[in-house]
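Teaching assistant's notes for section 4

Start the section by putting this record on the projector. Ask students to predict, before seeing the second block, whether Aspartyl-tRNA synthetase will look compact or extended. Collect guesses on the board.
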Amino acid sequence: MKRFYIALLATSLFHINGMKAQQTADQVLNKAIAFHDPNGNWRSLNTTFKVVMTTPERPTRTSTIKVDFPHNTFNLNVEQGGDTYTYNIKGNACTITLNGSENISKADAEKFRLDCKRGIFMKNYYTYLYGLPMKLKDPGTHLDPKVQKKAFKGKEYLVLKVTYDAEVGTDDWYFYFDPKNYALEVYQFYHDESKNDGEYILLEGLEEINGIKMPKTRAWYVNKDNKYLGTDTLQNISK
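Reveal the predicted structure now:
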């Protein structure tokens, strides 16, 4: 009988310790932010960096991005296939140039998809992806409190699920963190998870920009068939 109570006590203590060891989603996210942005520099970011995108059967696209959060400005300069276009956004004001001219024909605007709505989209695109995981603290972001443990490409991860207010985004996202140092190494999104649609993105290497550890490369794949879509390579040009 004594052995039974000792065994029961040991089991109870193990369960309690296991509960203590189980982290919340907020705790995992905070540790990930501490890894990527240890000095809290993201919100005051004022820097310039370059992203080189390679995709199958398309010319290389080089994007130079300048962000100045304190002054609410964003500049994107894109070079691809011998053409260059820019978006300059300051507050609600937006200007666009194509090959150095603001006089853009309707045909060229359609060909290059040049309009201010697209410019705002690109601003949100770049500041969201390179602002992860810090951007998961933004309003309209809903962090599932449960921390999942998943294996992906042969490695175990701590995984956070995130959904958004409808005006922010309609996709379901999963973020995969290294359980040792909390580095973000994979993210994945679905339009409809039951259909296994959407994409996953593999992150490799780190590039430090203004004290923030950003992914050096991002390789994009389709969830359904693992089709390779392209790779973004980050270059710090503000050193």
